[in-house]
Amino acid sequence: MASTPTLFATPVAAAPAQHTAAAAGSRTPMLKISDLRVAYGGIQAVKGISFEVLEGELVSLIGANGAGKTTTLKAITGTQPVAFGGIEFLGRDIKGQGPWDLVRQGLVMVPEGRGMFTRMTIVENLQMGAFVRDDDKQIEADIENVFGIFPRLKERRNQLSGTMSGGEQQMLAMGRALMARPKVLLLDEPSMGLSPLLVDKIFEVIDEIHRRGTTILLVEQNASRALQLATRGYVMDSGEITMSGAARALLDDPKVRAAYLGE
Ligand SMILES: Nc1ncnc2c1ncn2[C@@H]1O[C@H](COP(=O)(O)OP(=O)(O)OP(=O)(O)O)[C@@H](O)[C@H]1O
Ligand SMILES: [Mg+2]
Question: Has domain 56-70+98-260 been given CATH number 3.40.50.300?
């Protein structure tokens, strides 16, 4: 995966090397969620959760269907109203800000279902990803970098994205998010619906993006893979965070293994 570093955030020295909360403790919080509550009508989907993502971390948020993971990401990115609680990005309160403003500041989400512009080509979708930027000259180079990560997209650059396979759409969604040069990337179930080979490829790319310095919050039902890549993890169940810790410790925890790793 040879490409210039421009597409990625400034690398944090040895970011993935230390997988302990203590090592993470010396770093700056990029994202800080405090007592977040979100409801759909009378139904509380998120019931007062708190967590943070520190600079250079890859944090995995795992949990069963309906736990409230997507709702949490939507609340952070301003597409779902927040009933109560605090959301800070880079030390600033961002509650109530919309997704476009947040992308401009470097908080970028790849949604569940991917959210392509289906009537645009691959190249047009990638250009849209860079709409918040004004450095036109770099955009072409960044598109080439995305093609370096996902050669499949290059082969099909003029294909309408709506006609691509699920795996190709996931690659495009991630490529488009990178075009915004995110400081924090929020990924909602990137491996969902992909063949085993593509699942491998997607996790490999997530690892690569992280190692090059982008901070990542990864929501996944594939708990095993998500925790293997992560610095730390949080387990969400019925709208609450029930466990948290170093990813390695969660992977080894008998309760996590029984409930989420199919053992
Ligand atoms: N638009 C909505 N209106 C009403 N209820 C909703 C809405 N979206 C989600 N919910 C409910 O909120 C709860 C949390 O849903 P959410 O999509 O956040 O879960 P999730 O953890 O992302 O699940 P999955 O792993 O299946 O994607 C669920 O009970 C869901 O039915
Ligand atoms: Mg979800």
Answer: yes
List per-block mean pLDDT (blocks of 10 residues) for the chain, which spans 263 residues: 48 42 65 98 96 97 96 96 96 94 95 81 92 83 94 94 89 94 96 90 94 95 95 97 98 94 79
b/e code 92-121 from CB counts within 10 Å (16+ = b): eebbebebeebbebbbbbbbbebebeeeeb
Ligand 1 centroid–CA 42 distance in Å is 13
Helical (H) or strand (E) element with 120: none
Within 6 A (CB) of ligand 1 lie 40, 43, 45, 63, 65-71, 112, 221
For the chain, domain boundaries: 56-70+98-260
In the DSSP assignment, the letter for residue 162 is: G
State which H helix or E strand residue 232 sits in.
Answer: strand 232-237
Residue closest by Cα to atom 26 of ligand 1 = 65
| Continuous H helices in 25-149 | 69-76, 99-105, 122-129, 136-149
Please state, in angstroms and rounded to a whole number, the distance separating the CA atoms of residues 207 and 190: 13
Phi-psi region of 113 (alpha: psi -120 to 50; beta: other; left: phi over 0): left
DSSP 8-state code for residue 258:
H
pTM: 0.90
Cα 66 to ligand 2 centre (Å): 7
